[in-house]
């Protein structure tokens, strides 16, 4: 199979990670969850009592505590200095503060460099907020996933229930709307659709339907690139 890079962007809870993981597995590509990298920095800030706006200290944390990924039987694990933090970085305290951390240009610059290094050898599926516009502007396939705020709040609510995390639907919807605003209005690499990205509205679609849609777009590109 002709190796390409696939960039999947979209707002919070639009299904980016779920879709990206499945596609990477189906194609035998490497999956890179850039959101997990920003979550890891946020988690480190909480652990080390560093302010979410203290850019210099946050960059220091990135330099001192390398974030790596490892494939396990349960999927991809996120490690900080060898410790599995996959569950810890999904806690509400991290979720509610990650937008503030990821809005800092110095933090983004550090992590973007690491992400570009991962994708240099091709065969990567990367999801985030600015992959198609900033991280991998040369990606052969760019997808922009969207869904209504109410649909995304329902998904997040179900995810939390499955993990045993107590949450309230209305609060989740407000938090998602707030994240949308923060992500799309930040100065550095705001959330926006790349000009050459394909828009896929996942409202009312099943995971399988979304995967099929995106894989067909990618297959067509790979056939043309042979």
TrEMBL record:
Q: Which residues form the Cytidylate kinase domain?
A: 6-219
Key word Secreted present: no
Keywords tagged on the record: ATP-binding, Cytoplasm, Kinase, Nucleotide-binding, Transferase
What superkingdom heads the lineage? Bacteria
CDD domains in UniProt:
CMPK
- Please name the top-level EC class of this enzyme: transferase
Q: Reaction catalysed? A: dCMP + ATP = dCDP + ADP; CMP + ATP = CDP + ADP
GO cellular component terms attached to this protein's record: cytosol
What InterPro entries does this protein's entry cite? Answer: Cytidylate_kin (IPR003136), Cytidylate_kinase_dom (IPR011994), P-loop_NTPase (IPR027417)
Q: Name one Pfam family in it.
A: Cytidylate_kin
Positions contributing to ATP binding: 10-18
According to its UniProt record, the EC number is 2.7.4.25
* Keyword check for ATP-binding: yes
Name the Gene Ontology molecular function terms of this record. ATP binding; dCMP kinase activity
Any one Gene Ontology biological process term?
pyrimidine nucleotide metabolic process
Q: Where in the cell is it found?
A: Cytoplasm
UniProt-listed PANTHER family: CYTIDYLATE KINASE (PTHR21299:SF2), CYTIDYLATE KINASE/PANTOATE-BETA-ALANINE LIGASE (PTHR21299)
Q: Name the protein family.
A: Belongs to the cytidylate kinase family. Type 1 subfamily.
Protein name per Swiss-Prot or TrEMBL? Cytidylate kinase
């Amino acid at each position: 199979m002709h190796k390409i890079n696939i960039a999947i962007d979209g707002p919070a809870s639009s299904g980016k990670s779920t879709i990206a993981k499945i596609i990477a597995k189906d194609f035998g590509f490497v999956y890179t969850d850039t959101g997990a990298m920003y979550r890891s920095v946020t988690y480190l800030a909480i652990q080390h009592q560093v302010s979410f706006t203290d850019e210099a200290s946050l960059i220091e944390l990135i330099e001192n505590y390398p974030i790596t990924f490892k494939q396990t039987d349960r999927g991809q694990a996120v490690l900080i200095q060898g410790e599995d933090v996959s569950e810890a970085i999904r806690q509400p305290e991290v979720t509610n503060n990650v937008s503030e951390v990821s809005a800092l240009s110095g933090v983004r610059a550090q992590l973007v460099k690491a992400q570009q290094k991962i994708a240099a050898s091709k065969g990567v599926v990367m999801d985030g907020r600015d992959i198609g516009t900033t991280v991998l502007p040369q990606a052969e396939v760019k997808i922009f996933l969207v869904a209504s705020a109410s649909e995304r709040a329902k998904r997040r609510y179900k995810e939390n229930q499955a993990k045993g995390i107590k949450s309230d639907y209305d609060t989740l919807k407000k938090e998602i709307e707030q994240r949308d605003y923060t992500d799309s209005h930040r100065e550095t690499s705001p959330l926006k659709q790349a000009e050459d990205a394909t828009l896929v509205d996942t409202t009312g679609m099943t995971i399988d339907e979304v995967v099929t849609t995106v894989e067909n777009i990618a297959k067509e590109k790979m056939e043309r690139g042979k």
